[in-house]
Amino acid sequence: MRAYYESVNAYYNEDSASFDKRYWENPILQKIRQQFREEVYRLPFKNILEVGCGTGLDLVHFATNYPECSITGIDVSSEMVRLTQAKLTTGKAQNAVVKTGVIEDLDVLFPEQKYDLIYVFFGALNTVDNLNAVAKALHFHLNENGRLVLTFVNKWYALEVMVGLLKLSPSKAFRRFKKIWGGYSDTKQLDSKCLSPGEVKKIFSQGFDIERSKGFSILYPAWYRTSWLTRFGSRLSELLWKTDQWINRTFLWQFGEYFLYTFKRRP
């Protein structure tokens, strides 16, 4: 397990150098991130934990907007944590703390600490060693009636399959179906697992009830196809975004590039 997490640490340490620049140049990422945040806004909490905080974009956001709350973050990447800490120091966020580690380390990093809400944005749980064990750890570290807001990179991303087949590239069309997914990069390997909504639902059904489920980039372009916004134009892009909102009322929500579950802890 440790060897695997060291490889994930190395990957994201390298990735951290251009992480913020790529984010601020990508309007799709910004729009999706705001939707993830909206799910947190609607929930009550006095203390929250972010798993996979990256460079601290959301940790700093919530620390700034909820100064009366306690905000905690962890990330497997030591360099991501360094960048997050720099943001917290610059912003003088006294209500936030960040440490390097993974969910399996919570008992050591923050002994006996429990949270009203734990959130994971942009699929950090796609790079855990054992999601069943992680689900139990998250249950333990939530207060009674606490919530999880979890997002995952989706195995059943229908649009990617169709585009890959149209381009006569079945290897790209079905790469998320492999036991080990190599990540988004064509030049760097990140051993990870793409999960389906059904798989996640089954794992978390042992200790949680589903409150909300939602898909993202069902017809709207995925974040790595931001060039499509220019091709489509603002009107078509906005129509596709609104169409996704409608699709989320049907069973087709589960075929987007990302999916989100909000779980409520069961005693």
Protein described:
- The structure is a single chain.
- By secondary structure, this protein is of the alpha/beta class.
- It has a domain at 2-155 and 194-217 and 258-265: Vaccinia Virus protein VP39 (Rossmann fold, 3-Layer(aba) Sandwich), CATH 3.40.50.150.
- 42% of the residues lie in helices and 19% in strands.
- The protein is built from eleven helices and seven strands.
- A seven-stranded mixed sheet has the order 3-2-1-4-5-7-6, with helices on both faces.
- It is globular.
In CATH terms, what is the fold-level topology of the domain at 2-155 and 194-217 and 258-265? Answer: Rossmann fold
Rg value: 18 Å
User: What coarse outline follows from CA principal-axis ratios?
Assistant: globular
Number of strands: 7
Computed structural class: alpha/beta
Can you name the CATH architecture of the domain at 2-155 and 194-217 and 258-265?
A: 3-Layer(aba) Sandwich
Strand content: 15-25%
